[in-house]
Structure formats: structure tokens, C-alpha cells
Design goal:
Elements (H helix, E strand, L loop, with lengths): L4 H6 L14 H31 L2 H5 L5 E2 L3 E2 L7 E2 L18 E9 L5 E5 L9 E7 L4 E6 L7 E6 L13 E4 L4 E9 L4 H11 L3 E4 L12 H4 L3 E2 L6 H6 L14 H11 L8 H16 L1 H21 L7 E2 L5 E2 L10 H11 L8 E6 L13 E6 L14 E8 L14 E3 H6 L4 E2 L2 E7 L6 H5 L1 E3 L5 E8 L3 H4 L9 E3 L3
Parallel strand pairs: 1-12, 8-9, 20-21
Antiparallel strand pairs: 1-2, 3-4, 4-10, 5-8, 5-11, 6-7, 6-10, 13-14, 15-22, 16-20, 16-23, 17-18, 17-22, 19-20
Helix pairs in contact: 2-7, 2-8, 2-9, 2-10, 7-8, 8-9
Length: 495
């Protein structure tokens, strides 16, 4: 067993800094330089965990209650899940880059003292997409259940790092999480029709989490539709306030000015982390101890956090994140399975936290056109799929794709014409899009096109800069290895 982190932290201060003729200054500067450099790395490492741990504040808000946070977001008490009954509202300003293809559920587990039940659906129509994504406090995807992987219906036992025991009767499998906090996120696919949304809700109502202490034989209905009638607000916030200012309750999940305090609380609650994160957790605990015990280093660490936060948010944009995926699209190839890519994980936490395991869903992003200029609604852009070259996803396992429009802050457009914020599989299935000679051309601009075919295939843009995401759920191998290229976003002379 190693020496206490407080002792390690003391070692950053030289034993004799006040030697004559400033001879101790180089050692002082060396210690400060090392701490500052380490602090920046630890900031990127810990950012997603501080973000996730901050979101467990819903435990207090939802304690003893069922309903929707602010009336528009899924929320639940400790070790339960809540869910919406329709797409996430385009007007919400809590969740960046949500999809408009599935109905969301969400919950956070506290596995420090007990286990939780994860229930999967037993009655699912053929080809219907559903998933339960389970992440640790660092946002690593540790389990991805669902139609893509052929997960059977029934019950799974979700346990923390110190749980010991045998699989109880009636459970399919034990799902272990390396941290005490886990995020549990159900999703169920919904097309734009009333019938499809009823089906999505029916499947979603069979999916969720509840405490092991409440387990009874058989499957339960989660009652999400009835719960959605209840709008739950934190003190001082009302529906009228939120309607007047959608940003009124917009959280800042990670505050650089309190980062080391918040990181310390997260680490105290999660003494264990996964094997790949443990070495950095040790470094983080040393810096937290240094921050608590030394005023000079406290100030240095706070400045380092501020600098790292600025750099992170300057680089965490749809223009800059990811590697080339063909035709100007960018992708984080290790999405959800971050390993030791702490910078990539932090970038994802800023722009699209809780991305699925990339085998489940591939996300391609961009903020520029075919000439490398920033996308702007005043221009007219097209994306053309060649004949027979629509995105290859496995429809038999529920696969689908979509192109979603976001403003420059990565939120959907609250007042998009016709409520159209994305195009993809649901529009093709409904026959909403127009083909020309076998090709499919999508039109992206702020002003409504005058041509009827272009209007049918129009994805409205804001009268400002905008960002794009392509989602490919249950992707073909050619998407995974980037041999299939999505069409470029081409600026045209048409208006």
C-alpha cells in the first residue's frame, strides 16, 4: 500500500526553498511547473466524471417523486429511471445534441451500498430499435444492451466494484460497473407517426432500472406515461420562468473555479475506478490533497483549471473534434470506448456526452462546407446520395440513420418550420422525401426553397452558423471502417 496522498502532495514543496542567493528557487519553480502540467492533464481526465457526478443532483430533486424534470426532461430518484413519452423538446437547453429519432429515458445508480435491477423488454416488434446504455462515472460505456446485440428480455443485476455474491434466481446476468455511480440511459426508436410513437412507448415502458430491494417475480411496467403528467421544478424555477428564458436553468455541470473541490467529492464517492483510470485517479487525489492543504498551490491549481477549461472549450467544437471520415465529415473512432484517450473523452463530454459504444451507433459531425468555410444559414447547401448508396444500417436489428441540424451552441432549433429538425430513415419510410433519377438530394438553408422537390427535402437551418450530426445506428461494417462515405455538404449558388 502506498503512502498517503497528502504526503506525496507535500513533496512538491522543496525541503529548503529559502537557500542563500536564491539557490532554492529552481526547485520551487520545478515543483510548480510539474504541478501545473499535471493539473491540466488531470482536468481533462476528470472533466467527464465531475460532469456526471454533478448530474446526480437529480437524486435530491426527484427523491420520492415521479415525473419530468422541468416538464421536459427525464429524471428519476436514486436507482430508478424516468423517461419521456415523445422526442426531447427542441426548446430544451440542458442536453446538447440530443437525437430526434428515439424517446429517451435516464437514471443514475448509486451502487455503493446495494445493487439495482435492469429490466429489458420481453415484447418487442420485429425490427424495433431499443437500447439501454450503461456508463461509469467517467462516461465509459461499460454495457450496451439492446436490439443491436440481440439482448434477451428479462432482468439483469447491476452491481458496483465491491459487490460480492452469486447471481440471484430469476436474473439473466450480472452487470458490473467499475465505479459506484453509473448512468443508465434507455432509448426506444420512434418514427413521426402516432402509431410508431405508441409502439416506442410500449417498448420503453418495459425498460428501466429500480432498486434490488423492490424486486418481485415477473416483469414490471414502469408507468412512464402516467409519470410524465408531473412537472418537477427545482426551487425558484417555474414553467413561466423557463418559457420566458430557456437558459434560465441551463446548468454549468463543470465549473473550473470549483473543479478541485468537485473532483474531490467525486473521488470520495467513487474510491474505485476502472483499471485504465486508476493511475490518473491516484494523480488526481494527490492534486486534490495539495489543493486542500497549501494556499499557494491552491491558487496555482485553480489557475491551471481555468486555463485547461478555456482550452478544452475552444477545441471542443464541431469544427475541430474528430478525424477525417471522408467528404469533410469528422468522427471520433473510439466513441464510448475511450480507453486512455482522456482528451477525446473530455471533448465528447462537452459536445455530445454519453455517446453510445461506436459499434452501436456511429456519430459523424461537421461545422464546415466542402470548401472549409463555416456553415451558415444564409447559404444554400446540398447533400446528394447516389442511386443505391443510402447509408448501410441493419434494419433487421432496428438500424436507422439521420442527419440532424443544430445551432452553433449544439441545440436543436426550437422553432424549425414544420418542426423538422432532422432527416433520415423516418422520412424515407414515410415517403416524405423526393428522389430524382434514383438520387436523393437534401437541401440545407434558412430560407424555404421555392422548388417543390427541394422544399420536400429541406432541412431548415438557423439564420446564423449551424452544426450537423449524422447518426448511423446499428451500422454496417463499411460505416465502421469508413469505407462508406457520406455525401459532402456542398455550397451551391442557389438561394
Amino acid at each position: 500500500m502506498g503512502i498517503p496522498f497528502e504526503d506525496v502532495a507535500q513533496g512538491f514543496t522543496p525541503a529548503h526553498p529559502g537557500l542563500a542567493r536564491s539557490a532554492g528557487v529552481p526547485a520551487v519553480l520545478a515543483g510548480e511547473s510539474y504541478v501545473e502540467a499535471l493539473a491540466r492533464v488531470v482536468y481533462y481526465w476528470g472533466y467527464p466524471a465531475v460532469d456526471t457526478f454533478g448530474r446526480t443532483n437529480m437524486w435530491d430533486l426527484m427523491e420520492g417523486k415521479t415525473g419530468l424534470q422541468l416538464g421536459i426532461l427525464p429524471g428519476a430518484a436514486r436507482n430508478y429511471t424516468g423517461a419521456l413519452i415523445d422526442y426531447m423538446s427542441p426548446a430544451q437547453r440542458w442536453v446538447v445534441t440530443p437525437n430526434n429519432d428515439t424517446i429517451y429515458g435516464a437514471g443514475f445508480a448509486d451502487l455503493s451500498t446495494d445493487a439495482a435491477v435492469i429490466q429489458t423488454p420481453t415484447e418487442v416488434p420485429d425490427g424495433h430499435y431499443w437500447t439501454i446504455q450503461i456508463v461509469d462515472v467517467m462516461t465509459n460505456v461499460v454495457h450496451q444492451l439492446g436490439s443491436a446485440g440481440g439482448t434477451p428480455g428479462g432482468k439483469f443485476l447491476l452491481v458496483g466494484p465491491t459487490w460480492a455474491g452469486d447471481k440471484p434466481d430469476g436474473f439473466l446476468e450480472i452487470l458490473r460497473v467499475p465505479t459506484n455511480v453509473a448512468g443508465v440511459f434507455p432509448r426506444s426508436f420512434a418514427a413521426h407517426s402516432a402509431a410508431s410513437k405508441r409502439q416506442a412507448r410500449s417498448v420503453l415502458d418495459q425498460i428501466g432500472m429500480y432498486p434490488l430491494s423492490e424486486n418481485q417475480p415477473g416483469q414490471r411496467s414502469f408507468g412512464y406515461e402516467a409519470n410524465a403528467r408531473n412537472a418537477i421544478f427545482p426551487p425558484g424555477l417555474t414553467a413561466d420562468v423557463l418559457a420566458a428564458d430557456p437558459d434560465a436553468s441551463r446548468p454549468q455541470w463543470v465549473k473550473p473555479e470549483t473543479f478541485w473541490i468537485d473532483l474531490g467529492r467525486m473521488l470520495d464517492f467513487n474510491p474505485d475506478v476502472g483499471a485504465l483510470d486508476t493511475p490518473m485517479a491516484d494523480q488526481a487525489r494527490t492534486l486534490v490533497a495539495l489543493h486542500r492543504s497549501n494556499d499557494a498551490y491552491c491558487a496555482l491549481l485553480d489557475r491551471a483549471a481555468l486555463g485547461a477549461d478555456v482550452a478544452l472549450h475552444q477545441s471542443a467544437t464541431y469544427v475541430q473534434v474528430g478525424v477525417d471520415a471522408g467528404n469533410g465529415w469528422q468522427r471520433q473512432r473510439n466513441g464510448g470506448l475511450w480507453g486512455t484517450d482522456w482528451f477525446g473523452r473530455a471533448l465528447a463530454a462537452v459536445i455530445y456526452i454519453y455517446v453510445n459504444d461506436f459499434h452501436e451507433a456511429v456519430y459523424l459531425i461537421r461545422g464546415t462546407d466542402n470548401n472549409g468555410a463555416l456553415l451558415h444559414g444564409r447559404e444554400h447547401y446540398t447533400m446528394t446520395f447516389a442511386e443505391g448508396a443510402l447509408p448501410p444500417v441493419d434494419r433487421g436489428r432496428g438500424g436507422f440513420w439521420s442527419l440532424t441540424m443544430y445551432d452553433k451552441d449544439a441545440f436543436m432549433l426550437a422553432n424549425a418550420p414544420g418542426g423538422r429538425v432532422n432527416l433520415g430513415t423516418v422520412n424515407l419510410d414515410a415517403g416524405d422525401l423526393t428522389f430524382g433519377d434514383g438520387t436523393l438530394t437534401l437541401h440545407l438553408c434558412h430560407d424555404e426553397p421555392t422548388d417543390p422537390d427541394a422544399r420536400a427535402n429541406w432541412l431548415p437551418a438557423p439564420d446564423d452558423e449551424f452544426r450537423l450530426i449524422i447518426r448511423a445506428y446499428v451500422p454496417d461494417k463499411s460505416i465502421l471502417d469508413s469505407t462508406y462515405h457520406f455525401p459532402d455538404v456542398v455550397r451551391t449558388a442557389d438561394k
